[in-house]
Write a structure and sequence with these properties.
Blueprint lengths: L3 E4 L2 E3 L5 E7 L8 E7 L6 E6 L5 E3 L7 E6 L4 E6 L8 E9 L2 E4 L3 E5 L2
Parallel strand pairs: 2-11
Antiparallel strand pairs: 1-3, 3-8, 4-5, 4-9, 5-6, 7-8, 9-10, 9-11
């Protein structure tokens, strides 16, 4: 059973930065694709960023140039560096692991961007 634990969310002002972390338990992290999704108020969950086992990345158009996803296989952890945050980035951010076709989710961490 995989457990994903997110951390790093909070309340920040527009233009600020945050770094989210997601620590995964279990094996096979290094061969898993990892992703961050988010769900804003009244919105559907959407893909924010994804990183493959080969470290290939892709991003939602709305965050390109501002967010960076990375992974540390030695720590079984994936990160999301978020810069130049905007009010529209306000959402619950979820970590996702795709491990050999099996998808697992974290409990989510709240990010609120407000002045």
């Amino acid at each position: 059973q995989v457990q994903l634990v997110e951390s790093g969310g909070g309340l920040v002002q527009p233009g600020a930065s945050l770094r989210l972390s997601c620590a995964a338990s279990g094996s096979l992290f290094s061969i898993s694709a990892m992703a961050w999704y988010r769900q804003g108020p009244g919105k559907q969950r959407e893909l924010v960023a994804r990183i493959t086992s080969g470290r290939r990345t892709n991003y939602a158009d709305s965050v390109k140039g501002r967010f960076t996803i990375s992974r540390d296989n030695a720590k079984n952890t994936v990160y999301l560096q978020m810069n130049s945050l905007k009010p529209e980035d306000t959402a619950v951010y979820y970590c996702n692991q795709d491990r050999m076709g099996v998808s697992s989710w974290g409990q989510g961490t709240q990010v609120t961007v407000s002045s």
